[in-house]
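Sequence, structure tokens reproduced for absentees:
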Amino acid sequence: MQKITMNGQRTMFAFYTSTAKRTAKSFSELTKFVEAERKKGTVYPPADQVFTWTTMCNISEVKVVMLGQDPYHGPRQAHGLCFSVQKGITPPPSLENMFKELLQDIEGFQHPGHGTLTGWAKQGVLLLNACLTVRAHQANSHQGKGWEQFTDAVISWLNKNSSGIVFMLWGSYAQKKGSCIDKKKHHVLTAVHPSPLSAHRGFFGCKHFSQCNKLLQKSGKTPIDWNKLPVE
């Protein structure tokens, strides 16, 4: 597993360890599990990209949070940002549906022609999966190993120490994980997941991207430029 050396990653580690004291699994046990998994087979994302989401902006600059479940489990897709894929990889169906909604919701939005969302992350959009690793071709294979406590602690810290964050919670899993959010301090937008299995039941037409920017402006924050998706 990637060594936790960057300042943002040390902070995230501190969040986790404070929570780990109250849980059965410690971070060291989680680390050993993931390392053993990598020795047995392929695990995504690559070890040096597990914590990409901590490197895009300072935690104090987070304005928007999108919650996913676990990383993409196909070759060369996951790179440490939920919904996002590596450069040169075709956007998966859920991300394509997000782009379809953006085309209808945001005037002037253009499909970027790729699926790398670092441009959003650098503006303060935290693209966070509940589990940060997954076995190749086996969705949810690293659930219940300790990642959930880590990411719960990140959400709890943001909930307590920030204000005016827009949480975009799509699907029942994300909504359950975000149930601790104080709606008096933050904004919560909910809809079905953008998956092709559910997008037509309320994701299309939800206008969350424009709503998000209106809420940010109401809180005195700079809106997200959803078009700013350069290939990096």
